[in-house]
Amino acid sequence: MKVLSLIEPCATLIKEKNKKIETRSWKTSYRGELYIHASATSIPKEWKNDKEFMALVENTSLNFGYIICKCNLVDCIYMTKEYVEKMRKTNHQEYICGDYKEGRYAWILENITPLKNPIKAKGQLNIWDYYNEFETLKLMEDIEYGWIDKHNKKHSIVDEFYSNNYILQNPREVIKNKVGVCWDQVELERYYLKGNDWNIKTYFFVHYDENKCPTHTFLTYEKNNHYYWLEHAWESFKGIHEYKTLKELLLDIKNKFIKYELNSNYKKENLVLYEYKRPKYHMSVQEFYKHCESGTIINLESL
Asked: Which in 2, 149, 152, 174 has the greatest CB count within 10 A?
Protein backbone atom coordinates (compact mmCIF):
# COMPACT_ATOMS: atom_id res chain seq x y z
CA MET A 1 0.00 0.00 0.00
CA LYS A 2 1.08 3.58 -0.64
CA VAL A 3 1.43 5.60 2.58
CA LEU A 4 1.98 9.23 3.51
CA SER A 5 3.29 10.12 6.99
CA LEU A 6 1.99 13.27 8.68
CA ILE A 7 2.84 14.88 11.99
CA GLU A 8 -0.02 14.82 14.45
CA PRO A 9 -2.62 16.20 14.75
CA CYS A 10 -2.77 16.50 10.94
CA ALA A 11 -3.18 12.75 10.39
CA THR A 12 -6.04 12.55 12.89
CA LEU A 13 -7.65 15.64 11.36
CA ILE A 14 -7.77 13.78 8.05
CA LYS A 15 -9.08 10.62 9.71
CA GLU A 16 -11.88 12.67 11.32
CA LYS A 17 -12.57 14.35 7.94
CA ASN A 18 -11.81 17.77 9.36
CA LYS A 19 -8.96 18.16 6.86
CA LYS A 20 -9.25 17.08 3.22
CA ILE A 21 -6.28 18.89 1.71
CA GLU A 22 -2.67 18.13 2.56
CA THR A 23 -0.24 20.93 1.71
CA ARG A 24 3.29 20.11 0.60
CA SER A 25 6.35 21.87 -0.79
CA TRP A 26 6.59 19.28 -3.57
CA LYS A 27 4.24 17.93 -6.19
CA THR A 28 3.37 14.32 -6.89
CA SER A 29 2.15 12.56 -10.02
CA TYR A 30 0.70 9.72 -7.95
CA ARG A 31 -3.07 9.32 -8.01
CA GLY A 32 -4.99 6.61 -6.25
CA GLU A 33 -5.48 4.94 -2.89
CA LEU A 34 -3.32 6.43 -0.16
CA TYR A 35 -3.01 5.45 3.49
CA ILE A 36 -2.37 8.10 6.12
CA HIS A 37 0.21 7.43 8.82
CA ALA A 38 0.47 9.46 12.03
CA SER A 39 4.20 9.78 12.69
CA ALA A 40 5.68 9.38 16.17
CA THR A 41 7.05 12.94 16.00
CA SER A 42 5.90 15.25 18.79
CA ILE A 43 3.48 18.04 17.99
CA PRO A 44 5.53 21.16 17.11
CA LYS A 45 5.48 23.86 19.78
CA GLU A 46 4.04 26.47 17.44
CA TRP A 47 1.13 24.15 16.66
CA LYS A 48 0.46 23.56 20.34
CA ASN A 49 0.31 27.30 20.84
CA ASP A 50 -2.25 27.71 18.05
CA LYS A 51 -5.46 27.45 20.09
CA GLU A 52 -7.80 27.64 17.10
CA PHE A 53 -5.94 24.83 15.31
CA MET A 54 -5.67 22.55 18.37
CA ALA A 55 -9.34 23.10 19.19
CA LEU A 56 -10.15 21.00 16.10
CA VAL A 57 -8.84 17.89 17.90
CA GLU A 58 -10.02 18.78 21.38
CA ASN A 59 -11.30 15.63 23.12
CA THR A 60 -10.01 13.52 20.21
CA SER A 61 -7.42 10.78 20.74
CA LEU A 62 -4.29 11.17 18.65
CA ASN A 63 -2.60 8.21 16.99
CA PHE A 64 1.18 8.55 17.12
CA GLY A 65 2.94 5.78 15.18
CA TYR A 66 -0.05 4.23 13.39
CA ILE A 67 -1.53 4.02 9.90
CA ILE A 68 -5.04 5.20 10.74
CA CYS A 69 -7.07 5.77 7.58
CA LYS A 70 -7.15 5.47 3.83
CA CYS A 71 -8.29 7.88 1.16
CA ASN A 72 -7.92 8.63 -2.53
CA LEU A 73 -5.41 11.20 -3.69
CA VAL A 74 -7.24 12.71 -6.66
CA ASP A 75 -5.34 15.88 -7.51
CA CYS A 76 -2.23 17.95 -6.81
CA ILE A 77 -2.78 21.66 -7.33
CA TYR A 78 -0.06 24.27 -7.69
CA MET A 79 -0.84 27.14 -5.35
CA THR A 80 -1.02 30.47 -7.10
CA LYS A 81 -1.44 33.71 -5.22
CA GLU A 82 -5.11 33.65 -6.21
CA TYR A 83 -5.60 30.07 -4.98
CA VAL A 84 -4.10 30.89 -1.58
CA GLU A 85 -6.26 33.98 -1.22
CA LYS A 86 -9.39 32.06 -2.20
CA MET A 87 -8.67 29.37 0.42
CA ARG A 88 -8.09 32.01 3.06
CA LYS A 89 -11.43 33.68 2.34
CA THR A 90 -13.69 30.72 1.56
CA ASN A 91 -12.34 27.69 3.45
CA HIS A 92 -11.00 28.93 6.77
CA GLN A 93 -10.80 25.51 8.46
CA GLU A 94 -8.69 24.01 5.67
CA TYR A 95 -6.61 27.16 5.62
CA ILE A 96 -5.59 26.92 9.29
CA CYS A 97 -4.87 23.17 8.89
CA GLY A 98 -2.24 23.64 6.20
CA ASP A 99 0.65 25.76 5.03
CA TYR A 100 -0.83 27.81 2.23
CA LYS A 101 1.78 29.82 0.37
CA GLU A 102 2.29 30.65 -3.27
CA GLY A 103 4.49 28.02 -4.94
CA ARG A 104 3.44 25.13 -2.69
CA TYR A 105 1.05 22.29 -3.57
CA ALA A 106 -2.40 21.24 -2.38
CA TRP A 107 -3.01 17.48 -2.40
CA ILE A 108 -6.74 16.84 -2.70
CA LEU A 109 -8.03 13.86 -0.69
CA GLU A 110 -11.39 12.14 -1.13
CA ASN A 111 -13.21 9.04 0.18
CA ILE A 112 -11.54 9.18 3.59
CA THR A 113 -12.16 5.97 5.53
CA PRO A 114 -10.82 5.29 9.06
CA LEU A 115 -9.23 1.87 9.59
CA LYS A 116 -11.02 -0.42 12.03
CA ASN A 117 -7.64 -1.79 13.08
CA PRO A 118 -4.86 0.83 12.89
CA ILE A 119 -1.47 -0.53 11.84
CA LYS A 120 1.59 0.24 13.94
CA ALA A 121 4.31 1.45 11.61
CA LYS A 122 7.40 3.61 11.25
CA GLY A 123 7.14 6.86 9.36
CA GLN A 124 9.15 7.60 6.24
CA LEU A 125 9.66 10.58 3.96
CA ASN A 126 7.70 11.12 0.77
CA ILE A 127 5.08 8.59 -0.32
CA TRP A 128 6.29 5.19 0.83
CA ASP A 129 5.27 1.55 0.54
CA TYR A 130 4.06 -0.51 3.46
CA TYR A 131 4.11 -4.32 3.35
CA ASN A 132 3.24 -6.78 6.10
CA GLU A 133 4.88 -10.18 6.45
CA PHE A 134 2.34 -12.00 4.26
CA GLU A 135 2.58 -9.42 1.49
CA THR A 136 6.37 -9.69 1.69
CA LEU A 137 6.33 -13.45 1.09
CA LYS A 138 3.85 -12.97 -1.74
CA LEU A 139 6.11 -10.40 -3.38
CA MET A 140 9.06 -12.82 -3.13
CA GLU A 141 7.31 -15.76 -4.76
CA ASP A 142 9.24 -15.38 -8.02
CA ILE A 143 12.67 -15.06 -6.38
CA GLU A 144 14.73 -18.18 -7.04
CA TYR A 145 17.70 -19.46 -5.07
CA GLY A 146 20.96 -18.54 -6.78
CA TRP A 147 23.54 -15.79 -7.04
CA ILE A 148 24.91 -13.01 -9.23
CA ASP A 149 28.63 -12.73 -9.98
CA LYS A 150 30.87 -9.70 -10.56
CA HIS A 151 29.86 -9.65 -14.22
CA ASN A 152 26.14 -9.75 -13.45
CA LYS A 153 25.85 -13.35 -14.60
CA LYS A 154 23.29 -15.59 -12.89
CA HIS A 155 24.21 -18.88 -11.21
CA SER A 156 21.75 -21.41 -9.87
CA ILE A 157 24.31 -23.49 -7.95
CA VAL A 158 26.72 -22.39 -5.22
CA ASP A 159 29.89 -23.93 -6.63
CA GLU A 160 33.67 -23.46 -6.52
CA PHE A 161 33.38 -20.08 -8.29
CA TYR A 162 31.09 -18.62 -5.62
CA SER A 163 33.61 -17.58 -2.97
CA ASN A 164 35.65 -15.38 -5.33
CA ASN A 165 32.93 -14.07 -7.61
CA TYR A 166 29.77 -13.47 -5.54
CA ILE A 167 28.49 -9.92 -5.03
CA LEU A 168 25.80 -9.03 -2.47
CA GLN A 169 22.88 -7.51 -4.37
CA ASN A 170 20.78 -4.61 -3.21
CA PRO A 171 17.02 -5.26 -2.88
CA ARG A 172 16.12 -3.66 -6.21
CA GLU A 173 18.68 -5.84 -7.97
CA VAL A 174 17.22 -8.96 -6.37
CA ILE A 175 13.76 -7.92 -7.58
CA LYS A 176 15.10 -7.26 -11.09
CA ASN A 177 17.27 -10.39 -11.34
CA LYS A 178 14.73 -12.61 -9.53
CA VAL A 179 17.53 -14.58 -7.91
CA GLY A 180 19.46 -14.53 -4.64
CA VAL A 181 20.98 -16.68 -1.92
CA CYS A 182 19.80 -16.23 1.67
CA TRP A 183 22.20 -13.31 2.16
CA ASP A 184 20.49 -11.39 -0.68
CA GLN A 185 16.99 -12.48 0.22
CA VAL A 186 17.28 -11.36 3.84
CA GLU A 187 18.12 -7.86 2.59
CA LEU A 188 15.04 -7.94 0.37
CA GLU A 189 12.93 -9.01 3.36
CA ARG A 190 14.46 -6.19 5.41
CA TYR A 191 13.63 -3.75 2.60
CA TYR A 192 9.99 -4.81 2.33
CA LEU A 193 9.43 -4.84 6.11
CA LYS A 194 11.20 -1.57 6.93
CA GLY A 195 7.95 0.30 7.47
CA ASN A 196 6.89 -1.97 10.31
CA ASP A 197 7.47 -0.87 13.88
CA TRP A 198 8.64 -4.32 14.94
CA ASN A 199 11.88 -5.37 16.56
CA ILE A 200 13.44 -6.75 13.38
CA LYS A 201 16.74 -8.62 13.69
CA THR A 202 18.96 -10.51 11.26
CA TYR A 203 21.26 -13.42 12.09
CA PHE A 204 24.16 -15.30 10.49
CA PHE A 205 24.81 -18.96 11.32
CA VAL A 206 28.23 -20.25 10.25
CA HIS A 207 29.97 -23.55 10.80
CA TYR A 208 33.71 -22.98 10.47
CA ASP A 209 35.87 -25.76 9.05
CA GLU A 210 38.93 -26.09 6.84
CA ASN A 211 37.17 -26.89 3.58
CA LYS A 212 33.71 -25.35 3.51
CA CYS A 213 31.89 -23.02 5.90
CA PRO A 214 28.14 -23.60 5.55
CA THR A 215 26.09 -20.54 6.47
CA HIS A 216 22.52 -19.38 6.73
CA THR A 217 21.17 -15.90 7.27
CA PHE A 218 17.62 -15.27 8.46
CA LEU A 219 15.30 -12.51 9.62
CA THR A 220 13.18 -12.42 12.78
CA TYR A 221 10.72 -9.93 14.22
CA GLU A 222 8.76 -9.40 17.41
CA LYS A 223 5.04 -8.70 17.14
CA ASN A 224 2.31 -8.76 19.78
CA ASN A 225 4.66 -10.37 22.33
CA HIS A 226 5.50 -13.26 20.01
CA TYR A 227 8.58 -13.92 17.88
CA TYR A 228 8.59 -14.84 14.20
CA TRP A 229 11.04 -16.34 11.76
CA LEU A 230 10.30 -15.23 8.19
CA GLU A 231 11.97 -17.57 5.73
CA HIS A 232 12.00 -17.65 1.95
CA ALA A 233 15.42 -18.83 0.78
CA TRP A 234 15.46 -22.13 2.71
CA GLU A 235 12.94 -24.05 0.62
CA SER A 236 12.18 -26.73 3.22
CA PHE A 237 11.09 -24.12 5.78
CA LYS A 238 9.65 -21.40 3.59
CA GLY A 239 6.97 -19.43 5.46
CA ILE A 240 6.35 -17.63 8.75
CA HIS A 241 7.09 -19.53 11.97
CA GLU A 242 5.76 -18.36 15.34
CA TYR A 243 7.45 -18.79 18.75
CA LYS A 244 6.77 -17.71 22.30
CA THR A 245 10.34 -16.56 22.94
CA LEU A 246 13.39 -15.53 20.92
CA LYS A 247 15.36 -18.31 22.59
CA GLU A 248 12.86 -20.90 21.36
CA LEU A 249 13.10 -19.45 17.84
CA LEU A 250 16.90 -19.47 17.69
CA LEU A 251 17.12 -22.97 19.18
CA ASP A 252 14.71 -24.32 16.55
CA ILE A 253 16.71 -22.84 13.67
CA LYS A 254 19.96 -24.03 15.25
CA ASN A 255 18.65 -27.60 15.43
CA LYS A 256 17.34 -27.47 11.86
CA PHE A 257 20.65 -26.08 10.59
CA ILE A 258 22.60 -28.85 12.32
CA LYS A 259 20.25 -31.62 11.16
CA TYR A 260 19.63 -30.59 7.56
CA GLU A 261 22.71 -28.57 6.57
CA LEU A 262 25.59 -30.02 8.61
CA ASN A 263 24.60 -33.61 9.29
CA SER A 264 27.63 -35.68 10.33
CA ASN A 265 30.01 -32.76 9.76
CA TYR A 266 28.73 -30.89 12.80
CA LYS A 267 31.22 -29.93 15.47
CA LYS A 268 29.84 -28.06 18.42
CA GLU A 269 32.86 -25.78 18.78
CA ASN A 270 32.71 -24.74 15.12
CA LEU A 271 29.14 -23.42 15.08
CA VAL A 272 28.73 -19.68 15.68
CA LEU A 273 25.71 -17.40 15.52
CA TYR A 274 26.01 -13.64 14.95
CA GLU A 275 23.38 -10.95 15.06
CA TYR A 276 24.28 -8.43 12.36
CA LYS A 277 23.10 -5.05 11.07
CA ARG A 278 22.30 -4.13 7.47
CA PRO A 279 25.46 -4.55 5.36
CA LYS A 280 26.67 -2.35 2.55
CA TYR A 281 25.54 -3.65 -0.81
CA HIS A 282 27.92 -5.19 -3.37
CA MET A 283 30.10 -6.81 -0.72
CA SER A 284 32.19 -9.85 -1.64
CA VAL A 285 31.91 -13.14 0.28
CA GLN A 286 34.90 -12.22 2.42
CA GLU A 287 33.57 -8.75 3.14
CA PHE A 288 30.16 -10.12 4.11
CA TYR A 289 31.75 -12.60 6.53
CA LYS A 290 33.73 -9.78 8.16
CA HIS A 291 30.62 -7.63 8.43
CA CYS A 292 28.63 -10.37 10.17
CA GLU A 293 31.56 -11.28 12.40
CA SER A 294 31.72 -7.67 13.56
CA GLY A 295 28.20 -8.05 14.93
CA THR A 296 27.07 -9.56 18.25
CA ILE A 297 27.94 -13.19 19.03
CA ILE A 298 24.98 -15.11 20.44
CA ASN A 299 25.82 -17.56 23.22
CA LEU A 300 24.70 -20.90 21.79
CA GLU A 301 25.29 -22.62 25.12
CA SER A 302 22.31 -20.72 26.49
CA LEU A 303 20.01 -21.96 23.73
From this structure: 174
Q: What is the DSSP string of the chain?
A: -EEEEE-TTHHHHHHTTS--EEEESS-----EEEEEEE-SPPPPHHHHT-HHHHGGGTT----TTEEEEEEEEEEEEE--HHHHHHHHHH-HHHHHTS---TT-EEEEEEEEEEEEEEEEB---SSEEE---HHHHHHHTTTPBS-EEBTTS-EESS--TTHHHHB-PPPHHHHHHHTB--HHHHHHHHHHHHTTB-S--EEEEEEE--SS---EEEEEEEEETTEEEEEESSSGGG-EEEEESSHHHHHHHHHHHHIIIIIGGG--GGGEEEEEEPPPPTT--HHHHHHHHHTSEEE-GGG-
d(CA 273, CA 294): 12
Q: What is the pLDDT of residues 206-251, one digit of tens each?
A: 999 877 788 999 999 999 999 999 999 999 999 999 999 999 999 9
CA distance 136 to 191: 9
- What pLDDT, in 10s, does the model give residues 266-276? 899 999 999 99
Q: Is the pTM of the predicted complex or chain greater than 0.85? A: yes
